[in-house]
Structure formats: structure tokens, C-alpha cells
């Protein structure tokens, strides 16, 4: 979901110019990694969270390495590279809302690099905040959101907009949503049931496919890897 900030056209447009968003593939990689690693995740034990915390710390460490070495993902989170990047964490109650309607609070994560914030920094920043030393480890990332300018590039490129960020217009902001392990399991099951209703073949955890309706009466079936 990418809400667009619609300008009235009357504002003074003398501030910093828009920059191209390049972090979406990193967000996609994070969401996919969490979903793929969830089934093997240890259970949450509030009196001894070390196992769960260590597991997810390792997942994000390896993910950061994979993202950093993936040539299909741009080196920097924005173009031109910006030197500061804020991430604010919200529980799932904020998901689906326009970011401008979320409660105002200081970001939990600030990424800074004088040469420009790189793609691996986002993964490591989330790792350290969610699964670093002394953290509980139960918060699992399932979505993220940000504000976009209404303008698009010739190939569909999206841009930030200075009017979204006030006086700190040179600082990009992103909102990351998390839920507990128990709730994440419920979301996975809801996702599976939805796909079955839509006629998509999915796994049920037993190794055997669960088959829904045929797609459009064509006799063909979709298969979705889990």
C-alpha cells in the first residue's frame, strides 16, 4: 500500500526536491524472509526468550547479507542517496491506515551514513531493534508503509515528497508494522483460507496440497509455494 500525498498546488515548492524510492525490494525481501522462516521459529517463552530472539537475529543477519549481495536491489534506499532514514514501529492496529493518521511519535530506528543509507542498513536496523541484546524477540514484521508523491517516473518510479516531511524534508520516513508470533500464525492461516476460497492450491503444513475451486472454470489450477 502506498498512499499518495496530494498537493493543492498552492504550497511554496522551494524546499528539497523529491527523491526516488528504492527501498521497496528490501521491504519485500524482509516480508518474504519472515514468512518463510516463521514455520521453523521456536515458540515464545516470556521467561526465557533467548531461543526465539537468537533465531530471528540469525534470520535477519543472513537476510542482510543476501540483500547486500543481490545485484537486483539498488545499493541505496533512495536516489540520490540520503544520509538519514527514520523507521517507526507500530503494532498491527495501525496497519491499513494512512501514515499521516498514525499517532505521532519518535522513530525507534534512525539510520545514518554520510555516504548515503544503504540497502543492508534497513535490515540490520530492524534486527538490532527487534532482536538485539535484551529484546524480547516476539515482534514479527508483516508490513510497511510510506508516503509517496503523486508524480511517477517514465517507468513507474515512485518518489518521496518534501511536503510529507515538514522541516526535516531531507529525512525519509517509513512505518513498519509488527504483530506477535501468535497473531502472525493467525494471519498465516487467514491467508491460507483466503487462497483456498479463491481457488489457489496451497500447502496445509502436512506436505499435501489443499485444493480450492478451479480458476474461472478453465480446468487450470494455480499453485503457490509456501
Automatic annotation (TrEMBL):
<feature type="compositionally biased region" description="Acidic residues">
    <location>
        <begin position="1"/>
        <end position="14"/>
    </location>
</feature>
<protein>
    <submittedName>
        <fullName>Uncharacterized protein</fullName>
    </submittedName>
</protein>
<feature type="region of interest" description="Disordered">
    <location>
        <begin position="1"/>
        <end position="21"/>
    </location>
</feature>
<feature type="region of interest" description="Disordered">
    <location>
        <begin position="207"/>
        <end position="226"/>
    </location>
</feature>
Amino acid at each position: 500500500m502506498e498512499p499518495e500525498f496530494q498537493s493543492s498546488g498552492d504550497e511554496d515548492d522551494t524546499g528539497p526536491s523529491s527523491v526516488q524510492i528504492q527501498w521497496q525490494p528490501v521491504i519485500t525481501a524482509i516480508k518474504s524472509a519472515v514468512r518463510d522462516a516463521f514455520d521453523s521459529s521456536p515458540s515464545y517463552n516470556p521467561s526465557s526468550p533467548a531461543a526465539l530472539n537468537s533465531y530471528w537475529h540469525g534470520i535477519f543477519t543472513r537476510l542482510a547479507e543476501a540483500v547486500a549481495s543481490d545485484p537486483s536491489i539498488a545499493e541505496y534506499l533512495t536516489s540520490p542517496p540520503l544520509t538519514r532514514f527514520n523507521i517507526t514501529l507500530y503494532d498491527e492496529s495501525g496497519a491499513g491506515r494512512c501514515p499521516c493518521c498514525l499517532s505521532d511519535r519518535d522513530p525507534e530506528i534512525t539510520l545514518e551514513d554520510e555516504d548515503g543509507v544503504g540497502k543492508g542498513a534497513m535490515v540490520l536496523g530492524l534486527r538490532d531493534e527487534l532482536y538485539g541484546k535484551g529484546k524480547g524477540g516476539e515482534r514479527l514484521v508483516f508490513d510497511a508503509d510510506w508516503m509517496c508523491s503523486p508524480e511517477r517516473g517514465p517507468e513507474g518510479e515512485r518518489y518521496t515528497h518534501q511536503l510529507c516531511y515538514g522541516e526535516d524534508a531531507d529525512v525519509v520516513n517509513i512505518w513498519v508494522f509488527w504483530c506477535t508470533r501468535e497473531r502472525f500464525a493467525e494471519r498465516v492461516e487467514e491467508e491460507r483460507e483466503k487462497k483456498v476460497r479463491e481457488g489457489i492450491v496451497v500447502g496445509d503444513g502436512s506436505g499435501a496440497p489443499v485444493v480450492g475451486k478451479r480458476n474461472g472454470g478453465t480446468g487450470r489450477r494455480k499453485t503457490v509455494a509456501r
